[in-house]
Amino acid sequence: MRETIERTIDAGGEKVAALKDLAVPMRDGVHLAGDAYASDFGTPRPALVALSPYGKELQALALTMPPQKRPSPLWDGCIEAGDIARVVDNGYVHVIGDLRGSGYSEGDHIGNYNAGGVSLGEDAYDFIEWVAAQPWCDGNVGMIGISYFGSMQVIAAAERPPSLKAIFVSGGHYDFYETTYHGGIMWLMPRAAREGRGGDSGWAFTDGVKSRMLETHSPEQIDKLVAERLQDPDIQAWPNLVHALHYPKNHEPWFDIVMNDVDGEWYEERNPVNLAESIDIPVWLQIDQGRGWTMDGTIECFDRIPAKNKKLTIGPYPPMQSRPFVEEHDKMFRWYDKWLKGIDNGVDEEPAVSVFVEGTRQYVEGDTFPPRRAEHRELYLRPRGKLSSEPEPMGPAHAGPEGFFQAPLTTTSRVETLSWSTDVFDEPATLMGTGAFHLFAAIDQDDTNWIMRMWDVGPGGKRQLLTTAYLKASMRELDADKSTSGSPVHPLTRRVPVEPDRIEEYVLRVYPMAATILPGHRITVELSCNEPMVDEHNSLLPPDAFHLPVGRPVTHKVYRDAAHPSRLVLPFTV
């Protein structure tokens, strides 16, 4: 560990005092590195703790770099610990720590949310209690930060450190499998977050960052498992993944994700959603629309937290916050002023749930999500690209299937899509909640991706993404006990190859949404097996924020006739 030094930093004209390279002891003797920022260290104040493997020095750029919005080339997805100067100006100490095995910290970080046999929750507990005991802290601690930092808040709160009085989680990730595979389809963004690609600095790697797969399997077992994984045509067609599997020590955390392509014990052991039931302090969860799986996980986490004082805010599209992260600080300071400073500002008496509704651009409040009662109604896929509340009356002999052939992206840059649209709406209609996409289809291979994106299309053709749905065809099994007509749930624990040319019913989970379709607008739904790198939505995301394409040529036939009622089931408020 480096020696702690105290210095003053010029943050845009404001002076911030800093304690750099604090050595924070863990219960097993390992020390984590941290930096503390305050207006001065002579007066005890509440502290806001931020923990991640992205490196505390990277977070310090919040003092010198103006916030960047996508698609700025300087946007860095890992600068997520918050606005240091503003935290200090609001009377808090901002403490930013490097997790075990990363940055300037000691120890081994093995796998994800696991630290060499010690859960990251235990390390967070020890870090928080050490901070609370310092003379510059008054004993009251909260946490700060989005994405990975947000997940760490849930993991820490589940350990119940006595000094942690509340958390405010913005843009967190929860079910770890759902963070890396959507409906069983690999999402490439986690590689960027871990290795530093396409606008992300990645983890602050040290020799202490290791693969859990390599640590827990013999070389012979690894060789066998890697050989099996390399048989996947999607993997074979993506050079980065072939490289990661052949040279795992260059990509250790990502190697673990690639090797664990179905849900199960590896993900569940550190699943923050499972830990949520142990949280007994005030919690405010916030998420923006546009990346449906994070909305889904945020809502599930909110529902499972038993704490009396909990809040959920779903904000407006688009989905990507600034880097350095500066949004949502107004809400956060009101929350911490109440629970860390004891200021009676009424935040605990306001409605628990607040949802921004696209279209009307107004917030709707209530006690649960959705805050308004919704009933699920069906919109049927019809010939000639029509989406209708009336089912198709003709059978397959007359309303024959339509389809698309998708060549691998190794041989084409064209992504094929089918689309269906409603007539324009005469009256406003509000959608709020989850949905389902029932798709009757046949493919000529044993697997493919199903990717559905739903748009609000305005009178001039301008469109905005409302929600998405993803499903790997081989992972189509439903959990009958958990699924409902408007909320299908897939176990995603095994692959069952598709029988080529057989018509199957695929039921995709449509992620939560909150939007009013205004008069003159229409709903358009697009279906594909890959997604375009650039369009109205994807241009707002980092370059790696897309899904692993299908690596083989596949012909897809979609049936939408009287015998095969392909349809959307959507939550219309009443």
Automatic annotation (TrEMBL):
The record's GO molecular-function terms, alphabetically, read: hydrolase activity
Q: Where does the Xaa-Pro dipeptidyl-peptidase C-terminal domain lie? A: 333-569
**Gene3D superfamilies for this protein:** alpha-amino acid ester hydrolase ( Helical cap domain), alpha/beta hydrolase, Galactose-binding domain-like
Supply the alphabetized keyword list.
Hydrolase
InterPro entries, from UniProt? AB_hydrolase_fold, CocE/Ser_esterase, Galactose-bd-like_sf, Xaa-Pro-like_dom, Xaa-Pro_dipept_C, Xaa-Pro_dipeptidyl-ppase/CocE
Q: Which Pfam families match?
A: Peptidase_S15 (PF02129), PepX_C (PF08530)
User: What is the protein name for this chain?
Assistant: CocE/NonD family hydrolase
